[in-house]
From TrEMBL:
Entry-linked Pfam families: Prok-RING_1 (PF14446)
Record's keyword annotation contains Hydrolase: no
Keywords linked to the UniProt accession: Membrane, Transmembrane, Transmembrane helix
Recorded superkingdom: Bacteria
Coiled coil regions in record: none
Protein name: DUF2628 domain-containing protein
Region forming the signal peptide: none
SUPFAM superfamilies named in the record: FYVE/PHD zinc finger (SSF57903)
Region (Disordered) location: 108-132
Keyword Membrane set for record: yes
UniProt source species: Candidatus Acutalibacter ornithocaccae
Record field: transmembrane: 213-236, 274-296, 334-355
Length: 356
């Protein structure tokens, strides 16, 4: 026999409970309280009997889709916007139903010490200098707990009219790295080297949605790369072949160049300054590409911070939808598709000479 617990009786509408006297229609299988069935004298689902169908329990109500909900609950820990019915932050797991976490960036206690987020500390607490931080589940943070803000308070001011919480909505990915870096640059005025920006330069900027400067840097790197390929295949390789033949190098074998042959090639280059320049021109282009990469590596974090500040101010000044948090959440994050496209294009260009 099926378990009808919780299903409503079709006559009285009262849900069946464990131990109820339940009878089932022999034709369609609909359950009833015995008293309700005797009251009606027969099954009330005549349409099922005529069509020869069986009674089926009603489908359970579907839970609301968080993706279709309005995101109006801001996480008190990391500042992420969550769905209206969410109980915990979908990013850091903090509770959205308890009291909001309080931050104080200016108050200082009597001893002059500040807490880990810039607020006043409490004397005599269990942690010695400040009360133990709370997780979203009501307890204290376990050892080595992950903080999506990297120890930076979302309420802390990054720039005029812009908080770190606002900036984190734009950064989204890897906020645990960028928020402390932004605070370091704000406090010290110094840049902090970004290895990803150094390696990928313009592609990194486009990935981080800095489209204007990313397009400029990508165009410069692309032009230098094309120039390098053109110089290598059209200038350097024919000239090197000619110099090697004059020095007596047998290019048909895999034998290396001897010291005497290298000296001869150097002497031939010294006789013609233009040939000497063309011979080392690929190295000059590579050096120029390295300079661009170093500039982006050293300036990337500061440029990204300024980009976030400008975007937040622009969104707050516009206020098209009435809630800038929704706009920041929509415009934030990274552009993965453009990174994939750039990688595919790079692989095609690099391997293009092999297909010619």
């Amino acid at each position: 026999m099926l378990d009808y617990t919780g299903i409503k009786c079709p006559v009285c509408g009262v849900p069946f409970r464990s131990g109820d006297d339940i009878v089932v229609c022999p034709e369609c299988g609909a359950p009833y309280h015995r008293a309700c069935y005797q009251e009606k004298g027969a099954c009330i689902f005549d349409d099922l009997h005529k069509e020869g169908k069986e009674w089926k329990p009603p489908a359970p109500p579907q839970a609301p889709d968080p993706r279709a909900e309005i995101k109006d609950q801001e996480c008190p820990v990391c500042g992420t916007l969550n769905g209206h019915s969410a109980l915990f932050c979908n990013r850091c797991g903090a509770s959205l139903t308890g009291e909001p976490r309080q931050y104080n960036n200016t108050a200082v206690n009597q001893g002059g010490a500040q807490g880990p987020y810039g607020g006043a500390t409490q004397q005599g607490s269990g942690y010695g200098a400040y009360p133990p931080p709370r997780t979203g589940f009501g307890g204290t943070v376990p050892p080595f707990a992950f903080d999506p803000m990297g120890g930076v308070s979302p309420a802390e001011v990054l720039d005029t009219g812009v908080s770190f919480g606002d900036a984190s909505k734009l950064v989204k990915q890897n906020t645990a790295y960028y928020m402390p870096v932004f605070r370091y640059m704000k406090q010290t005025g110094k840049n902090k080297f970004n290895f990803s920006a150094f390696l990928f330069s313009g592609a990194w900027m486009l990935y981080r949605k800095q489209y204007k400067y990313g397009a400029i840097v990508t165009a410069i790197m692309f032009a230098l790369f094309i120039a390098l390929q053109a110089v290598c295949y059209l200038v350097w390789l024919p000239m090197y072949t000619q110099l090697a033949q004059q020095a007596g190098v047998d290019l048909t074998t895999q034998a290396g160049i001897t010291t005497e042959q290298s000296i001869v090639i150097s002497q031939l280059l010294a006789q013609d300054p233009l040939s000497l320049f063309c011979f080392y021109l690929p190295l000059v282009i590579v050096a120029a590409m390295l300079v661009v990469m170093l500039i982006v590596g050293f300036r990337g974090n500061k440029m990204y911070m300024r980009h976030c500040i400008r975007t937040v101010r622009k969104v707050k000044a516009t206020g098209n939808d009435g809630d800038p948090n929704n706009t920041l959440d929509a415009r934030g994050g990274v552009n993965t598709s453009i990174a994939v496209c750039l990688f595919v294009c790079y692989m095609l260009i690099v391997n293009l000479p092999l297909w010619l």
